[in-house]
Amino acid sequence: MISQFFILSQRGDNIVFRDYRGEVQKGSTEIFFRKVKFWKEEEQEEAQAPPVFHVDGVNYFHVKIAGLLFVATTRVNVSPSLVLELLQRIARVIKDYLGVLSEDSLRKNFVLVYELLDEVVDFGYVQTTSTEVLKSYIFNEPITVDAARIPPLGPASIFMQGSQRMPGTAVTKSVIANEPGGKKREEIFVDIIEKISVTFSSSGYILTSEIDGTIQMKSYLTGNPEIRVALNDELNIGRGGQSIYDYRSSTGSSAVILDDCNFHESVRLDSFDVDRTLSLVPPDGEFPVMNYRMTQEFKPPFRVNALIEEARNLKAEVTIKIRAEFPSNITANSIVVQMPLPKYTSRATFEIEPGAAGQMADFKEANKKIEWNLKKIVGGSEHTLRAKLTFSQESHGNIMKESGPVNMTFIIPMYNASGLQVKYLQIAKKSSTYNPYRWVRYVTQANSYVARL
Amino acid sequence: MAPPARSSQSSSPSQPSGKGEVSDLKSQLRQLAGSRAPGVDDSKRDLFKKVISYMTIGIDVSSLFGEMVMCSATSDVVLKKMCYLYVGNYAKVNPDLALLTINFLQRDCKDEDPMIRGLALRSLSSLRVPNLVEYLVGPLGSGLKDSNSYVRMVAVIGVLKLYHISSATCMDADFPSILKNLMINDCDTQVVANCLSTLQEIWTAEGSNSEEASRERDALLCKPLIYYLLNRIKEFSEWAQCLILELVAKYVPSGNNEIFDIMNLLEDRLQHANGALVLATIKVFLQLTLLMTDVHQQVYERIKAPLLTLVSSGSPEQSYAVLGHLHLLVMRAPMLFSSDYKHFYCQYNEPFYVKKLKLEMLTAIANESNTYEIVTELCEYAANVDVPIARESIRAVGKIALQQYDVNAIVDRLLQFLEMEKDYVTAETLVLVKDLLRKYPQWSHDCIAVVGNISSKNIQEPKAKAALIWMLGEYSQDMQDAPYILESLAENWDDEHSPEVRLHLLTALMKCFFKRPPESQKALGIALAAGVADFHQDVHDRALFYYRLLRYNISIAERVVNPPKQAVSVFADPQSSEIKDRIFDEFNSLSVLYQKPSYMFTDKEHRGPFEFSDELGNLSIEPDVSAQHVEADDEDLLLSTSEKGDVGFPLNGSSYSAPSYDSSKPLSASNTSSDLAILETSVHHQASASLAIDDLLGLGLSTTPAPAPPTLSLNPKAILDPGTFQQKWRQLPVSLSLELNVSPRGVAALTTPQALIMHMQGNSIHCIATGGQSPNFKFFFFAQKSEELSNFLVECIISTSSSKAQMKIKADDQNSSQAFSALFVTALSKFGML
């Protein structure tokens, strides 16, 4: 049960404010914003406020989405995951209706947003968060904003950049807006999004690795046909009894072994045990069909080696080498490699391999970091960065302990490390001419990709 | 709804200031009010939008109330909705004008479109004007009978709104019983769910002053209703499912079969993508199996994977909420998670609050099999550029060292930290080395060699400096330079601003003086003189006290300031197990994330249903103490770090035994001189020593007079079935809770808990359930009076690692609980436990 709901801009302006129960004093938005902005914790200067905190008997919950703060307040001891989940869902519903979620689109459509909020929650109790159910209560029409100007939102948004294979407008289409020409395009998107975390030891050995994946669906099909999604035949869930980190059992076999997974409410698992198919009637809007987690050994897309060597006269040399270990028909985008340096580093000069286009290296003076940006990396290639450092004082001989670890972010479209696949996507046919567009897209992102020195 | 008028706040440049615009709007609305020209609705929409947008950003547009109402005569739903929103927001501040709206709202409540009926009814019940409730009762009554489920859904919540405006009107109209009926008969699940929320809230609020209402509240937990809801649970929305599960978690099943039925039914809910639903299911599983130790443990195994999946999928905020719950479970049963330690490694991009939870979990689950990996990982973080995490990691390493038997390697690592020569690393490490020495004096040789090389000039943080000074004082006989380092510190007394450091310096010099008088006499003199002149009260008092003590008798002074010590066996846990249990009972709530029970952060009127407030009365002493400890916990992972070094009493076995430790606790926690405490308590202790031995109770409850000799006799053949026990345990308040020290013999005896159970049975105290595993054992006992059917229930938690036993006694007859506890304690001590 929540008392108030509001959305604040990054500057702390109210974009939307709805008081459901009138139990929390006025000015809660300011109290909240001040607290979040100037959060202090122990000796930390730039601490981040936790998603849940309380001030004077009022509990504040917030999630950050698209640079906006979605906030709920209550005086009661409620389930925090319920409220945080609700905030996410409200954001998703709003996005489904507005097409894009941004300060601009919210300001232009706030009446529609209020309309939604009135139906989603009544007197603090959740009534429904189903985009589908809400359709019959919504009378405003969305005012579209220019999607190109909007900063990308969520993992699926990477399909909007560069890649011509996908119609960029699809992800930003409102569930209730009509296409120009009056007819809705029949299409369905299935995205397999994987976030990978790998920690390499100083000797290059993989200390930990995990894939957190999600099969995300967004349907624009009329008449809610039933859909069957078939996954790999050799898909096992759970590693009964074994330690999750026991790698031996899995090598050599093509089986995908998930540690665990969970499913959206609409998914029926009747035949899942038999042929690994999920059947569902997709509700309108965007939703995760399945979340999964895997610690089975997999081949990390990048190998990272970093070395720092001390030379005489307050100098040192850093070498960072990355090797792309995926097929050459695949290209990774937006690669950023960072490496913290000793605090007393005063200067760094870089030597980028000759002939490298789209690479840039920089020394971030303020937080003493090397930042190396690569626009793209083709599978199978190797790239090296050398940097010469100048120190302002003598090191204590443990320069290794004062720099690193190297961390890396990247996006690899049309690639997934787990091997989980959507083998086919079957849509119950309404007529012989009915053949909607189906998009099945894969993408892999770095979550925490770290190499120690 | 926007807060009207925030006049004090200067509006940002992008937002209009208000006044002019509002009067503009007013005249435009007037023009449109009567107009029937085509396209007038569109212009109205634009105007209404403007009004609502002003309302949102906090401009007071309440002066438009009349005009808005005049414009509301329309068939355009969008316009109507905006108007409802506006009216709902300002009716409360314009009660007179609100009357104007009643008419059109009541008319809309009879509209043929169910959507309009619902919307109008919702607005009508949201006016929050007490004078207008009479107009609400009728439409609500017909709304509850409406053929359309949307209208019923709105009407049910409307009843709750009415209750909050005027509870008497709501009760007089007998709405609760209509809802009760609707709850079991309506075909729409959302109507049912709303009935449940509404009734829960109403009965809980009424329950405090009406017997009947609290009976009604308990009736929500009756078997038919629970089964009715459970059997249809998948028809409900995921949010309503959470609501139902929350209710089921309070339900007391009549037997094991019922428990398994419920769990089988809910099994697949653990695979749901909604974290709130999974946590609600887990709560049901945990609560149902509380008294079934084996199954309870299986539940932990079963829920591990789903919880870990939830932590790694979803937004960072959601995963934090789940991780908080995982943290609670890990803390309760670290053994069960010891092979999953890799899941709790920190990722570099996680926020501080997540990393902190993970570090605590890693600390808790470290055991013989994984310590090497965990400590290696923690040492990586210690070198991290993220200073707060580095600090936390070092503390975690130290804490692991304190809880392990084989600390050899860890001590080496800690000493390596000192070689890193980073200020904050050295500071944290010194504090830890000090604690380690208090527990493992045998390591002093290695540590001192390293610590001796650290120059006190490089240490700035008071805590670290205090730790260093403590070591200098404590081991001055082994450290060649100790008197001279202390002397230079004493000479620069004014440069040291922290009273904590000054206090330690005084004590360290005293100790040094007893061991190496010629070398430290001068320094002691300087320090005492400076101390007596100090502005800080504690420093002044301590210096003066030492001075007088020395004048009185040096050997007595030595006995007071530097008595022979025994190693600290276990550092006190900052949170009592009572508090922890309460947090566990409030699983899937904010209590878990805040790590405190709800009574510490919610107002009384906002506590949820089924929280037994009467229990709080009995706890009234505890919260204060523990609240303090909770705060202390935020700063220090170990309570010891907030104490002065000198209070390292052994917990048992010497003249400074546990009772004096306990009584000095409040003093040390409030950062005052602890040497004074020693003197006071030891004197007090000597005087009462004989008493304390005779009367075991006196130890735990030193302020209460010894109870009258018990005249209570127990029924040796008492019978109580587990269901009744569980029910009674929930209902009865704690009438007595006590904490006793367990003797080493008792600890040894617990290797076979069965023996204790047999022994207690011989004393007519029966064991109904046992749980936990070494070092924490949990027993539930019951006993009955021999002459009447009056039960005593006991929860007894014995920790062999801290040598403590905590008991909670609940009794049907509160008056005899004192006598019963005496019997219970006597029985325990006969077994050799105490």
UniProtKB/TrEMBL annotation, chain A:
Q: Which family does it belong to?
A: Belongs to the adaptor complexes medium subunit family.
Q: Which GO terms describe its cellular component?
A: clathrin adaptor complex; endomembrane system
Residue ranges annotated for the MHD domain, each copy included: 185-452
Is Protein transport one of the keywords UniProt gives this record?
A: yes
Protein name, UniProt field: MHD domain-containing protein
> Which keywords does UniProt give here?
Membrane, Protein transport, Transport
Q: Report any Pfam family annotated for this entry.
A: Clat_adaptor_s
Q: Where in the cell is it found?
A: Endomembrane system
Lineage of source species: Eukaryota, Viridiplantae, Streptophyta, Embryophyta, Tracheophyta
SUPFAM superfamilies this protein is in? Answer: Second domain of Mu2 adaptin subunit (ap50) of ap2 adaptor, SNARE-like
Indicate whether Ribonucleoprotein appears among the record's keywords.
Answer: no
Any one of the GO BP annotations: vesicle-mediated transport
From TrEMBL, chain B:
Output the SMART domains linked to this UniProt entry: B2-adapt-app_C (SM01020)
Highest rank taxon of the organism: Eukaryota
- Spell out the InterPro entries in the cross-references: AP_beta (IPR026739), AP_complex_bsu_1_2_4 (IPR016342), ARM-like (IPR011989), ARM-type_fold (IPR016024), B-adaptin_app_sub_C (IPR015151), Clathrin/coatomer_adapt-like_N (IPR002553), TBP_dom_sf (IPR012295)
Q: Name one GO biological process term.
A: vesicle-mediated transport
State the residue spans of region: Disordered.
Answer: 1-41
Recorded GO cellular component terms are:
clathrin adaptor complex; endomembrane system
For this UniProt record, the keywords arranged alphabetically read as follows: Membrane, Protein transport, Transport
Q: Where in the cell is it found?
A: Endomembrane system
Q: Where is the composition biased (Low complexity)?
A: 7-17
Report the main location listed first in the record.
membrane
Q: What molecular function does GO assign, one term?
A: clathrin binding
Q: Where is the Beta-adaptin appendage C-terminal subdomain domain?
A: 712-829
The protein's role, per its UniProt record: Subunit of clathrin-associated adaptor protein complex that plays a role in protein sorting in the late-Golgi/trans-Golgi network (TGN) and/or endosomes. The AP complexes mediate both the recruitment of clathrin to membranes and the recognition of sorting signals within the cytosolic tails of transmembrane cargo molecules.
The record's similarity note reads:
Belongs to the adaptor complexes large subunit family.
- Cite the record's note on assembly: Adaptor protein complexes are heterotetramers composed of two large adaptins (beta-type subunit and alpha-type or delta-type or epsilon-type or gamma-type subunit), a medium adaptin (mu-type subunit) and a small adaptin (sigma-type subunit).
Q: What is this protein called?
A: Beta-adaptin-like protein
Q: Which organism is it from?
A: Trapa natans
